[in-house]
Amino acid sequence: MTARLLSGPALNLGAEPYDAHRQRLGALPGKAERAGLIPAIEAAGLLGRGGAGFPVGRKWASVAGRSKGQAIVLANGAEGEPMSMKDRVLMATRPHLVLDGVELAADAVGAKKAVLYIGSEHAGARVAMEAALRERPRVVDTRIVTPPVSYAAGEESAAVRFVNKGDPRPVTVPPRPFEKGIDGKPTLVQNVESLANAALIARYGAAWFREAGRAETRGTALVTVSGVTTPGVLEVELGTTLADLAAWTGGTASVGSPVLLGGYFGSWVAGPDAWQMPLDPAALRARGLAFGCGVVGFMGDSACGVAATARIMDYMAGSSAAQCGPCVYGLRAVADATARVATFAAHPDDLRRLRGWTESLVGRGACRLPDGTVGLLRSALTVFETDWAAHTAQRRCQVRA
Ligand SMILES: Cc1cc2nc3c(=O)[nH]c(=O)nc-3n(C[C@H](O)[C@H](O)[C@H](O)COP(=O)(O)O)c2cc1C
Ligand code: SF4
User: Fold this and answer.
1) Which of 209, 324, 341, 342 fits 346 for a cystine, CB–CB 3.0-4.6 Å?
2) Is the same domain home to 129 and 199?
3) Is the Cα torsion angle 194, 7, 44, 141 positive or negative in sign?
4) Do 186 and 315 fall into the same domain?
5) How far does residue 46's CA lie from ligand 1's centre (Å)?
6) Which domain range does residue 37 map to?
7) Given ligand 2 and candidates 320, 334, 361, 373, which is best to mutate, with the most ligand atoms within 8 Å of its CB?
8) In angstroms, what is the span from residue 369 Cα to ligand 2's centroid?
9) Is the pTM of this model over 0.90?
10) Could you tell me if residue 3 is inside a domain?
11) Phi and psi, residue 232, nearest 5°
């Protein structure tokens, strides 16, 4: 484990005050040094931590190029993924690192205004960020906006729409927020962990950032680990393996047992090889997987993967922002079919139809909610192949028998 974002006082002490933060990390670089920040972030190879893994420096450059001093920064702390806790932990314990990132981003892209977009269920994080805003000089005109609990509210076009109109549903893009976002201005939507990383790169440089990392993608990342003796949020070097994570957190699952990687938008993986693969965005992408927002859920040996997948499908169907037909009706049909299989009441063609939906629902919504959901289903149909068959044909569970 390598503490960078989470170095400093113990997390159970709560928010690090401004004075302590400045004493520990020093002041932010001055105007002259900040001029090289976008190239430094690009050289560091920092990828966004909100799920998609888009290069942060490239996004800052795109917004800066359109800004004309009018851009707006939206720090995304919606964290609607049910298995993720890392953003709320970061905001609740290191609020000034996130605000440093906001200040630097605003400077770099030419923004005078910023929005802290914090999921309304993350009350501790919101209180810490409010207090932190009061503690420090107000360099950027910053306000807090709290979207309702919803998976899709954290999607960037939904975030912009909620700030503009109070409606947290995604919209069809283009134009994307970096072109036309809050108040019609170019808007930099950046995950709070990405911004906190930028604040460290500004102080210590790209070479320092790249010192951490065990595989191709450099740096550290926050991960939320569950299904272990000590679940919670850890900071790890990218490239750490599942086996290492299990060892550090007291995982009791046997090596190679199923793991949900990336949360409800992610994939099931299993097998000793999977436990040895590096948690590295580039290496995972090459295997058709995603690091996503850093969720690692060890399922254990005695849980049924079909039942677990059915619960997730039901949650995602309920999370549809109910504006695109294929998402509303398609995800409900997926959820109903998986529930029937999980409860040994499958219709004869349920498995065939489930396989079909993993293809036919891709790209059918205004946002990627259907894509993420059926991507997880696709992985479940592979990893738990014999379990689906046993649930359907023999009407019994091999795991819970
Ligand atoms: C359905 C959906 C939900 C999302 N929820 C979040 C979220 O809660 N927090 C977040 O930072 N990004 C979320 N994203 C990703 C954002 O759209 C956006 O890519 C991200 O905030 C950009 O920041 P980053 O480049 O630093 O990751 C979500 C995307 C989708 C498709
Ligand atoms: S795909 Fe689903 S969640 Fe996304 S905008 Fe359409 S209805 Fe809403």
Assistant:
1) 341
2) yes
3) positive
4) no
5) 16
6) 11-211
7) 320
8) 6
9) yes
10) no
11) 145, -160
Q: Is residue 370 part of a domain?
A: yes
Judge if 287 and 329 occupy the same domain: no
Q: Which of 142, 114, 148, 147 is nearest to 130 (CA)?
A: 142
Residue type, 218: R
**Amino acid code (one letter) for 70:** Q
For residue 121, the CA-to-ligand 2 centroid distance in Å is 21
Q: Could you tell me if residue 2 is inside a domain?
A: no
Residues in the chain: 401
Which atom of ligand 2 has the smallest separation from the CA of 328? 7
Q: Sheet of 295-298: strands edge to edge?
A: 232-237, 220-226, 295-298, 259-261, 267-269
- The atom number, within ligand 2, closest to the CA of 322 reads 7
Q: Are residues 146 and 265 in the same domain?
A: no
- For residues 39 and 185, state if they share a domain: yes
Decide if 221 contacts 294 (C-beta within 8 A). Answer: yes
What CATH number is associated with residue 286? 3.10.20.600
pLDDT per residue rounded down to tens, the chain (401 residues)? 678 999 999 999 999 999 999 999 999 999 888 999 999 999 999 999 999 999 999 999 999 999 999 999 999 999 999 999 999 999 999 999 999 999 999 999 999 999 999 999 999 999 999 999 999 999 999 999 999 999 999 999 999 999 999 999 999 879 999 999 999 999 999 999 999 999 999 999 999 999 999 999 999 999 999 999 999 999 999 999 999 999 999 978 899 999 999 999 999 999 999 999 999 999 999 999 999 999 999 998 889 999 999 999 999 999 887 889 899 999 999 999 999 999 999 999 999 999 999 999 999 988 999 999 999 999 999 999 999 999 999 999 988 66
